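Final paragraph of the annual report: two paired records, presented back to back.
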Amino acid sequence: FSLVLSLGATKDMGKMLGGDEEKNPDAGKKEEERQEALRQEEEERKAKYAKMEAEREVMRQGIRDKYGLKKKEEKEAEAQAALEANAEGSLTRAKKAIPPGCGDEEEEEEESILDTVIKYLPGPLQDMFKK
């Protein structure tokens, strides 16, 4: 037993160190067959699980129908539609990351606010601020 083990180990060591590998004409053909068998098994496995998931989904849909439940995606879509509908008739607008007018143009914004305030003052006070 130890003799066979040592022969096999030295043969593998020679391959690892860069020695010539054995040339087997059927090795490529066997490898292709093995790869094809693996691909086929993988396809069969995927088909099996797809079938099982389809059966589960039929059962889930039956439960949803029986108890009046909705799918998660349907709930999210309805919630989004409700938010959009509320936003359309709302007096408040949706918050934005950066309000318009913020940035480098601060002086112009202040002037426009001052002009707006001046418009609502009585005539003599308007004249005082305009000077």
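The closing record of the year follows.
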Amino acid sequence: MRLYSLSVLYKGDPKVHLLKAAYDVSTFSFFQRSSVQEFMTFTSQLITERSALGSRASVKEQEYLCHVYVRSDGLAGVVIADNEYPQRVCFTLLDKVLDEFSRQVSKMDWPSGSPATISYSALDGYLSKYQVQTP
């Protein structure tokens, strides 16, 4: 059971953009890592774009499950995990991250923000904390 990506996005008008993301691509070969990360970013944006405000969904993409939660204020979170990772845990994580993000990052910064301009450093910690360690 693995988590590969945790992203916070803003579903604005007309398009979705990434605010902050954390990735764990350590299980992929060195040469695959950048393209896997690009795939995860693209997939996260696409799923958020296709999801309605105030909705939660789990979408299967190749051998991954993408869990998306779009809040009614446009703030969205996406977790990309393997098929075995519990769905309930993913949505609990998304709730926690989006609540904390919206408290720490001003709503005024969401429409124009980008990973370079948003200061929110907790994603990497959450990604490793929620990683299931296999014995």
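Helices lie at 33-50, 87-104, 122-129. This concludes the annual technical report; the extension proposal builds directly on these records.
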